[in-house]
Specification:
- The protein is mainly alpha-helical and 248 residues long.
- 84% of the residues lie in helices and 0% in strands.
- The longest helix is centred in the middle third of the chain and has 40 residues.
């Protein structure tokens, strides 16, 4: 198992070296980046909004039901909901979810190109297939990820606000005050910094597993699963590391 891990790590490093070569034609690279932003980023916005809206509502409800103490001010619900969303949900948990959607999409797309010999055709024509196929995906997803995180932050907090409006669990004014109380701007930047690392992990790991698929449709499905699992593990690992570095 250790030998397999070391072998895959070495292959991944060599794969990244080939990926980050200067593109042969910048105009083609720019067009592909725009297409990937639309496919990987813009198409993920509805999913991000729906999930964030409901999770924000659930967090607000749970906080209210579990912090009913006379020693705690009423605005604690808004404050706790805000910090949970900014510190973890809007970046780490969101990226775990997107690893399933975006990661499997990338792995299956590149894997299908491998088993149908389209990548081999590019290599025969003298095209750096890693740079041509993978680099636009990585760049596009890394650049668009902060927008998805921003949508997640705003929508999740709005979901909690809807709970305050349409239920009698917490007054809306108290919830709004809690969102503003003891606000630390660094928490927003902290979430945005982490999302760059997580987006790179999702796009590069999924591309790696898809690129080295061997076999047929069954192996493409297995590569997609392996990409999601590996990305999720690395996201959790780097979440611990980045939290220690950025919040110590």
């Amino acid at each position: 198992m250790i030998n397999t891990w070391l072998t895959n790590t070495g292959k991944y490093c060599l794969f990244m070296e080939r990926t980050f070569k200067v593109p042969d034609r910048w105009s083609v690279f720019a067009r592909r980046c725009i297409d990937e932003i639309s496919k990987l980023g813009v198409d993920s916005i509805p999913l991000v909004i729906i999930i964030s809206l409901f999770i924000g509502a659930v967090i607000a409800i749970q906080m209210q039901l579990n912090t009913t103490s006379p020693l705690m001010p009423a605005y604690t619900v808004g404050l706790a909901t805000r910090d949970i969303v900014l510190l973890e949900f809007s970046n780490s948990i969101l990226c775990l979810i997107l690893a399933g959607k975006v990661g499997s999409n990338i792995a299956s797309e590149i894997g299908t190109m491998r088993v149908t010999e389209q990548i081999d055709a590019l290599e025969i024509m003298g095209v750096n297939s890693c740079s041509f196929l993978v680099l636009p995906k990585v760049v596009a997803f890394v650049l668009f990820m902060p927008i998805l995180v921003t949508f997640c932050m705003g929508t999740a907090l709005f979901g909690g606000f809807l709970v305050a409006i349409f239920t009698d669990l917490i007054p809306a004014s108290r919830y709004s005050y809690g969102l503003q109380a003891l606000f630390q701007e660094w928490y927003v930047w902290y979430g945005l910094i982490k999302c760059f690392f997580f987006a790179f992990i999702i796009a590069s790991i999924a591309s790696f597993f898809g690129y080295y698929v061997r076999g047929g449709a069954l192996e493409v499905g297995k590569a997609s699963t392996d990409a999601v699992v590996t990305s999720s593990i690395l996201i959790l690992l780097f979440d611990v590391i980045l939290t220690k570095l950025l919040l110590q």
